[in-house]
Amino acid sequence: MFICNPLAKLNGEIKGIIFDCDGVLFDSKDVNIKYYNWVKEMFGLPPLSLEEEEYVHMHSVHNSFKKILPPEFWPRIEEIREKIDYSKLYPYLKMEPGLVELLSDLRQCGFKLAINTNRTNTMLPILEVFGLNHYFFPVITADKLAFPKPYPESLFLILSIWKLEPKEVAYIGDSKVDEECAKRAGVPFWSYKNPGLQAEMLIPDFYSLRQFLLLKRKKIC
User: Fold this and answer.
1) Domain ranges in the chain?
2) Beta strand pairing status for 94-95 and 169-173?
């Protein structure tokens, strides 16, 4: 269901919105492919397969390395990560249109905003580079968790910090990993540009989401 459809509903009042990063805040699939192809090249391995491209776009860096590298290379994972200057990939990241307008208005209207991502130490620098770091609290990354997505630990942590119930928030994601995480936590799931997911709403773009939420709140800020 597109959120701009007048029949779209909210289950109660949404007080907080949690965003995935890759594929939601940023169009970053090409960046992820470049990054992991650099890794495979360092080990003299062929480029990512189509299956691997999909996997690394959704999963944590640790699990992605184990997916794309043979076990004999796993002890060198941290060594390789330290050798790669991720900042060289920033120019390839594309922020989703309408994101800044959405975040600014939602903050002004009192919505809590957080990030739940399987990224690790690249998340905070990216937010700073793009001027988004002041919008989100908390920012939950895979390295802060014992069990990253699709396990629900991250969402439970955000709910605890916010002191909100699952029904009072929504999680916006674009993958089966996000869908499963929300389902396990009992949090309403909104799919971003992916009609193939089981979600309460399908978000076509951030301009539509902004209009929908502000109208539902009955407050134009």
Assistant:
1) 16-27+94-217, 29-92
2) unpaired
Count other Cβ atoms within 10 Å, centred on residue 50: 7
| Model confidence pLDDT, tens digit, residues 44-91 | 999 999 999 999 988 888 899 999 999 998 998 888 888 888 899 998
The CATH fold of domain 16-27+94-217: Rossmann fold (3.40.50)
**Short-list 93, 90, 79, 111, CA closest to 28:** 93
Cα 48 to Cα 39: distance, rounded to the nearest angstrom: 10
